[in-house]
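Go through this chain for my students:
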Amino acid sequence: MKIEIDVEQFARDIKAGKSIGGSDGALGSLIKQLTEAALAAEIDSHLSQDLNRNRKNGYNSKTMKSDHGTFELDVPRDRNGSFEPEIVKKNQTSMTGEIEEKILSLFALGNSYSQIAKHIEDFYCVGFSKATISAVTDKIIPMLQEWKTRPLETVYPFIFLDAIHYKVKEDGRYISKAFYTVLGIRVDGKKEILGLYLNESEGAKFWLQVLTDLSNRGVKDILIASVDGLKGFPEAINSVFQDTQVQLCIVHQIRNSLKYVGSAYQKQFAKELKAVYQAFTKEEAEFELDKLEEKWGKKYPIVFQSWRNKWDNLSVYFQYPEDIRRVIYTTNIIESVHRQFRTLTKTKGAFPNDDSLLKLLYMGIQNAQKKWTMPIRNWSLTISQLAIHFEGRLDDALNL
């Protein structure tokens, strides 16, 4: 049994500027329909399995309270009195936004509007249009805006910055846009996404705007920032947070180096390069880099020119103990977040607008952060070492 829901009044409410959620929100007009549709499907299923010639016997009316207002609910009865509804129990007088939450949870898992409509129909026997589902997911937008402007902590021991690219429709054509992610490690050692930003391309100039936004939202100090090898990135960071040490991602540097090495020699070159970035001290690393350049420099000069030009920021991690090195030498921690984003968006070839992309990734972040309940590995030791290396800069945050 499929029941179509009348959404005309819902659409008029939205166009008139009425909020979607809340006690007087437009969704309130749908909750009664949705619930009664589900109850109708329940009693039909019950009667089809009843062999005692049972049949419908009118309705009982009761007042229900929900997140979206109060309404009178008509609950169907059967003649034998054996019908026990599941979606609304006999003595139940209040409801949560179950169907709405189901839609949002399905959306957060990367389901398309068509897939969500099918899931809702299969589960509740209720037909939902794409327009209705879109209206429900649009309630994410004010939540997203509030989240994007929330105050941040004053000090972050580590932050990681990276971008991922998507196709988004703009002015009638699809263009590639860079989605900027900032992940911070708080003083308690737990991960937190600090913000979401979209721009037409990835560049140090826009990263400067991102960092300025972090400062405006209350961030006063960042101890170490780990980033890829984008030109001008360290300068952009230090123009806003002048005392922050910037570590360029070693993994990015290795990948970029191997692009210029002939395929026949890549395996050997990568093996010998380990002696540089796995060295115990900066001096040892520089010695190994000199040896490597003596052997390969004439064949691949551009590789060593890159390492020399970026060495100050590539070698920052050598001054720290192993626990800190492990955290900062690569941006893998934020790339793992981007892998989750790709899983969410893998069925989407492109997005019709910025909001459609942002609200999906925002929901993905909320799902991810539910799992970030524990500090990163060996955090107690790591924060103690940071307090020594950055004397005084963590005192207020640690209440020292």
